[in-house]
Automatic annotation (TrEMBL), chains A, B:
Signal peptide: none annotated. Its EC number is 6.1.1.15. This is Proline--tRNA ligase. Pfam families: HGTP_anticodon, tRNA-synt_2b, tRNA_edit. Consists of three domains: the N-terminal catalytic domain, the editing domain and the C-terminal anticodon-binding domain. SUPFAM superfamilies: Class II aaRS ABD-related, Class II aaRS and biotin synthetases, YbaK/ProRS associated domain. One of its GO terms (biological process) is prolyl-tRNA aminoacylation.
Length: 581, 581
C-alpha cells in the first residue's frame, strides 16, 4: 500500500471530550471519527485494525468447530418477548417501530434469534453439539457513552452460541471455547488474563472474562502471583480469616462521636485502627401480592469491617436475600433504629431484623459500631456477650490486596483490566422459555443446553492502546497493527536512488505477504516519523541518500530507543524476520 | 471443510410465501432463514456466498483506488436534516429515538455521513480525488417486502462515494468506477448488462445500472442486438419516427362508442388498428404561495398512441412540467373537458390547456380520439386542419420492442433484468446543502463534486439464482458458489478405501486452495446428490468402491447431463483445471 493512495489524517490535538488515552490517540491517529454520542465511523486506518482482529477471531472460531452465520441487526420484538428480555431490559435496549407500528429492537446480542434458529434447525441429538456465531453490528443505548469506542453505543461484537444435548456436553463445548479464546488472545499479542466471573443464577464456575491488562482499566482483576488463580472483583472469594474469634477484653461503652458518621472519622477520633470499626448497611426484602404490591417487608442489617466494601453479587447469594433485595429507605431505617444512617449498629434495636455478619466481622472482638443515637458510637462490642450471634455469617465483601488466595497458594494482588471477552455457560436460560428442544435417542424432546461467548471486536483496539502507548502515540502488536511496517523514504522526490530502493523494498515485502505501507506523501522526515509513531506502526525502515551511500537502511522498532543499520540487500529478509504474525 | 462440521439444512418444500424461484431455492437450500417480514438470517451456507461476493467487490474496489471505511448503521437525524432527506424521505426511512428522545435513522445509504466525513477530512485540493466506500448493513422499511432477500428490508450494500475538485475530474472518477463495476460483474460469472439510466435533475449521461439478466427480473432492459446500446425503460429514448406526417385522407367525424372507454375497445369496435388511436392523459402543474397553498393550476393534455405507455421520467423533462406535475383530478377534468375520463380528446375544448404530443402522435394523420362526450369518439382527426399544432412535441413514452435504436444501429429488443448495481454522478447534490468544500490552489473554498456507487451484496445471490437454476436446484458460477467442489463418497462408513480416497482428494484440494466440501454425513447417494444439486455446488466428484476398482472417480459439472470418468491419480489436477476462479 502506498500512503498517497490511502487516507492518513493525523491531528496534533485530541478533541476535548476524549478523556482516556486510547480515545485521544485513536482520534489523533485518524482511526475513528465521531458522528454522534457513542457513534463512530471507522476510518480506513482504524478499520484495518478491526479487520485483522476479525480475521484472527474468525480463524480460531472456525478451527474450534464453530460455524459462522449472520443474524439481523433489526429483530422483531416477538422473540424478545418470548424470553422476557423485551420487558426486563431497560432503556439500554434500543426499540424501534416500523411503518406498520410493529415493534423491533436493534440487537445488543442475539440469544433469542440464534435460539429461534436452533429450535428450527437442530431437531435431533445427531445434530448436536453445534456452535453458531456471527460478527455483527450491535447497539446498546448507554446512558453515558464515553471513552470513544471503549464504551460506545454502536459496536461490533463476535457472539457465539453453543447448543448441546446435556450439561456435560455443554461444559465440554464451554471448555472448547475457553481454549479457543486463549488461542485468540494469544494471537492478538496483548497481555491479558482469563478471570473467573460470577455465573449468576446458573451457578457453577463456568463464566470467565477475558481482560486486557491496563492500568487505566475500569475493572479490578484479582489474581494470585504465586498461582494461576484469577477472578474479577465480583467473583473473588474472601476466605474466612484463619484462627478463631479472640476473647473480649473491653467492656461495652457508649462514647460521644458528634458529627462523625463514617467509620474513618470515628476511628480517627477514637485513635483506633479502621479495622476495629464495623459498618452497618440496612437492606430490605419485600413480599409482594399478585398485583405486585408490597405486602410485607423484612429488614436486614449487614455488618462489614470499616475498611471493607460490600459486594452486591455476594450479598445476593445469602439465603433469604437471593430472591432480590433493595437498600432500606430512610423512613424504614428511622422506624427500626430510631436514628438516621451514620450512627447505626446492631445493639439495642427497637424492632427485630436479620443480622448478617461478614466472615471477617464474625471473628472480631472489642469492635466499634454506631449506638443507634445521633452523635454516639459504641465501643468494646463483643458477639455473644453484648448481642446474639449473627443470624448468618457470609462472604459479603470485595477482596482487598493481601487477602488470602482462595486456592490457598498465596496472597491476592489486584491489577486493572478492560473486559473484551466473556465465555458463559447458560444452561437452559434461553432454551426453556423459547422451548428449544431436540429429540433424543428415544424420540423424546429435551431442552438444549446453551453457552454464549462474546468478543468486543471494536473495543479491542482501544484496550490494546490503553495497554500499549507512550507519549509519542500508539504501539501496536504486529498481529493487529494497521500496517506492520512503514517504509519511510527521505527526499523521495529529489533522489531517484531513494525512490527506487524504497519502492523495491515495498514491492519485495508485498510479494512476501507483509502488510507494508510506503510513505510516498513527500512529508518532511520529522512530520513523517511523528505520524507513524502516533499511528503506532511497529516496524519502521528509513531509506535515505546518506544511508544508501553506505549501503545501509535504518531500522527501528516502535519500542526501540535508537535505530539499527541494516544492509540494503538484507533489508527485506531482516524485516520479515522481525515481524511476528 | 467436512460436511459433518458444517450446517447443512435442506428442505423438500419451500414455504408458501416464497413466490419466486430464488426465494424458494434459497429457503430449500438452507441459505437464509426468515426472522420477520423482509428480515432474514444468513445461514452458514448462504453467508459463504455473501462473503465471496464481498471479497470480489472489495478487491476490485481497492484495485480501483477506493479506500474502505465503515460508517454507522444508526445515524443521528442532524446530518439527514442538513440535506433535507429527513423530511423528504417517506416511511421507507426507518426512524428511531434514543433514551434521551433524540432522533436517529437506520441507514438506507450513507451520503450524508460520508459527506460529513469528507468536509472534515478532505480540506485541500491536494487530497482529491478520493473514493471512500463501506460494506455495511442497511435498512429500508419497504411497504411490501417480498421475494426473500431480493426485496428485503435489512440488507447488505456496498456503497462508495467519490469526491472530486471539478466536474471533469468527477466524470473521470465515475468512469473508473464504471470500469471497476464491469470487472466486478465479470468476475461474478453472471450474464449482466450495464444499462444507461436516468440521471434525474443532474442531467448528462452519467448514470448506469448493472442488471443481472433473468427472465423473472422486475426491470425491463432495452438493448440493441446489433450494437452495445443498452438502457433501462425510464431512460431509453423513443426516436421520432422516420419520414414526415402523411396527408389527411378522412373527414373528421363523431362516432358513437357507447361503453368503449379504452383505446383497445374503441379500435376493436371500429375495426381499426390500435396504432390509429390516440389516448389523452391530463396532468396539472400548480403555482404555490409562500404557505405552500395552490394559488393557480395549469392543465396539460398529453397525447400518446393508443398502444404506447407514458414514461413519467420523460414527461418530467418537458419544459413546463419539469418543476413537478400531478395527474389532474376528476373535477378538474370535468371542468375542462365537460366529461369524465374515457372519452377525452384535444378537439373542441371548453377551456385552454397545453397540448403535448408524443413524437409518434405528432406525425399521425386520420387518428381517433375521445370526443369529449360520454359514449362518443372522433375519427379522422388531423393536425393543423382539425386542431392547432401541439403546444409541444416530446418523447413521452416507453420504447417498445422493434423501435429504432437511438444509436441508429438497428432495432431495440427488450429483456428482463434484476438491478444489483448502480453508478451515479451526483454533482453537488449533497456537497451543496452540507457545504462540503475544499480549498483550491488559490485558497478559495469550492464545493466538492460527488458520485455514488452501490452494489446490492445480499441481493446478488438471489439474482444469480434467478439466472442460474433448473428443476433440481441452484447452479452457482464457480466464483460465488458456497463451495466449488463437493466430494461425494459412497459408503464411506463401510469402505476404508472410499474413505481414504475421498479424504486424500479433499486434503489435496484444500492444500491447493480450492474451496471443497467432503460430504461425510453418511447420507445415501440419492439424498446426497439431491442435496448438492439443490445447493448448487458447480462441481461434483463421486468416490465409490466400484469406481476405485477401475481406478476411476466420476466427475459431473452441475450443468452436465452425465458423469465423466477420471483416473484417481489425475483427479485433483483435473478438478483444479475445471474450476474457474
Amino acid at each position: 500500500m502506498k500512503a498517497s493512495q490511502f487516507l492518513i489524517s493525523t491531528l496534533k490535538e485530541a478533541p476535548a471530550d476524549a478523556e482516556v488515552v486510547s480515545h485521544q490517540l485513536m482520534m489523533r491517529a485518524g482511526m475513528v471519527k465521531k458522528l454522534g454520542a457513542g457513534i463512530y465511523s471507522w476510518m480506513p486506518m482504524g478499520l484495518r485494525v478491526v479487520r485483522k482482529i476479525e480475521a484472527i477471531v474468525r480463524e480460531e472460531m472456525n478451527r474450534a468447530g464453530a460455524v459462522e452465520m449472520l443474524m439481523p441487526v433489526i429483530q422483531p420484538a416477538e422473540v424478545w418477548q418470548e424470553t422476557g428480555r423485551w420487558s426486563k431490559m431497560g432503556p439500554e435496549l434500543m426499540r424501534v417501530k416500523d411503518r406498520h407500528d410493529r415493534d423491533y429492537i436493534v440487537q445488543p446480542t442475539s440469544e433469542e434469534v440464534v435460539t429461534d434458529v436452533a429450535r428450527q434447525e437442530l431437531r435431533s441429538y445427531k445434530q448436536l453439539p453445534r456452535n453458531l456465531y456471527h460478527i455483527q453490528t450491535k447497539f446498546r443505548d448507554e446512558r453515558r457513552p464515553r471513552f470513544g469506542v471503549m464504551r460506545s453505543r454502536e459496536f461490533i461484537m463476535k457472539d457465539a452460541y453453543s447448543f448441546d444435548r446435556d450439561p456435560a456436553s455443554a461444559k465440554a463445548s464451554y471448555a472448547t471455547m475457553a481454549k479457543a479464546y486463549r488461542a485468540i488472545f494469544d494471537r492478538f499479542g496483548l497481555r491479558y488474563r482469563a478471570v473467573a466471573a460470577d455465573s449468576g443464577a446458573i451457578g457453577g464456575d463456568l463464566s470467565e472474562e477475558f481482560q486486557v491488562i491496563a492500568a487505566t482499566g475500569e475493572d479490578a482483576i484479582i489474581y494470585c502471583p504465586d498461582s494461576d488463580y484469577a477472578a474479577n472483583i465480583e467473583k473473588a472469594e474472601a476466605l474466612a480469616p484463619q484462627g478463631s474469634r479472640p476473647a473480649a477484653t473491653q467492656p461495652m461503652q457508649k462514647v460521644p462521636t458528634p458529627g462523625k458518621s463514617t467509620c474513618a472519622d470515628v476511628a480517627q477520633l477514637l485513635g483506633i485502627p479502621l479495622q476495629r470499626t464495623v459498618k452497618s448497611l440496612v437492606l430490605a426484602t419485600d413480599q409482594l401480592n399478585e398485583a405486585g404490591e408490597i405486602v410485607k417487608s423484612q429488614l436486614w442489617l449487614l455488618l462489614l469491617r470499616g475498611d471493607h466494601d460490600m459486594n452486591e453479587i455476594k450479598v445476593g447469594k445469602v439465603p433469604g436475600l437471593d430472591a432480590g433485595f433493595r437498600f432500606a429507605t430512610n423512613a424504614e431505617i428511622v422506624d427500626h433504629f430510631g436514628t438516621p444512617p451514620g450512627y447505626l449498629g446492631p445493639i439495642g434495636l427497637k424492632k427485630p431484623l436479620n443480622v448478617v455478619a461478614d466472615r471477617e466481622v464474625a471473628v472480631m472482638a472489642d469492635w466499634v459500631c454506631g449506638a443507634n443515637e445521633e452523635g454516639f458510637h459504641t465501643t468494646g462490642v463483643n458477639w455473644g456477650r453484648d448481642l446474639p450471634e449473627p443470624f448468618a455469617v457470609a462472604d459479603l465483601r470485595n477482596v482487598v490486596e493481601g487477602d488470602l488466595s482462595p486456592d490457598g497458594k498465596g496472597k491476592l494482588a489486584i491489577e486493572r483490566g478492560i473486559e473484551v471477552g466473556h465465555v458463559f455457560y447458560l444452561g437452559t436460560k434461553y432454551s426453556k422459555p423459547m422451548n428449544a428442544t431436540f429429540l433424543d435417542e428415544s424420540g423424546k424432546p429435551q431442552l438444549m443446553e446453551m453457552g454464549c461467548y462474546g468478543i468486543g471486536i471494536t473495543r479491542l483496539p482501544a484496550a490494546a492502546i490503553e495497554q500499549n502507548n507512550d507519549d509519542r502515540g500508539i504501539i501496536w502488536p504486529d498481529a493487529i497493527a494497521p500496517f506492520t511496517i512503514a517504509v519511510c523514504p527521505i527526499g523521495m522526490d529529489r533522489s531517484a536512488e531513494v525512490k527506487a530502493a524504497a519502492e523495491k523494498l515495498h514491492d519485495d515485502l508485498v510479494a512476501a505477504g507483509v502488510d507494508v505501507i510506503l510513505d510516498d506523501r513527500g512529508e518532511r522526515p520529522g512530520a513523517m516519523f511523528a505520524d507513524w509513531e502516533l499511528i503506532g506502526v511497529p516496524h519502521r525502515i528509513v531509506v535515505s541518500d546518506r544511508g544508501l551511500k553506505e549501503g545501509q537502511l535504518e531500522y527501528q522498532h516502535r519500542r526501540d530507543a535508537a535505530a539499527t543499520k541494516v544492509p540494503v540487500a538484507e533489508a527485506s529478509a531482516f524485516l520479515r524476520g522481525r515481524v511476528q504474525a
